Amino acid sequence: MPILLTVDARSGVPIYQQIVEQVKRSAALGVLQAGEQLPTVKQLALDLTVNPNTVARAYRDLERDGVIETSPGRGSFVRGDGTSASTRLAARDVVRRTIEGSVREAKAMGLSRSDLRGVIDATLDRWFPEEQ
Q: Is the pLDDT of residue 86 over 70?
């Protein structure tokens, strides 16, 4: 199954980070399976109409984070070492970035720390009622 990535140069998030987060999210959700090959740097750069250095940086970050492994001459593959630890870490990283963006937005809107904590607690109670 080919991976479908999109980037938005106007989002304020660097393009390489968008690529990293989308690959991590796809791996965490099982859209990308262990051992699945990613497009080459050149091909993904062409598909997204971005500089190949941007894609190369994203792939380096993904490799550093243990999400993919690159074999010279063969390509880049979703890491398939039989553990889900790297998948959980990838999911946590994506969620952390999302929460950071939400907290930043709440602060910019003037919410206090206690207001934000109330919103977060109510949201957690809604989605995780069994852990109250």
A: no
The CATH architecture to which 1-132 belongs is Orthogonal Bundle (1.10)
Query: Domain-by-domain residue ranges, the chain?
Result: 1-132
To the question of pTM greater than 0.90 for the whole model, the response is no
Q: Which two tokens stand for residue 37?
A: 């090959």
Q: Which residue has the tokens 């890491």?
A: 79
Task: Confirm if 50 and 33 have CB atoms less than 8 A apart.
Answer: no
CA 32 to chain centre: 12
DSSP 3-state of 97: helix
- Of the candidates 74, 81, 79, which has an alpha carbon nearest to the alpha carbon of residue 32? 79
Q: Is the pLDDT of residue 82 over 50?
A: no
Alpha-carbon torsion angle 62, 14, 7, 50, nearest 10: -90
Q: What is the mean pLDDT of residues 70-87?
A: 78
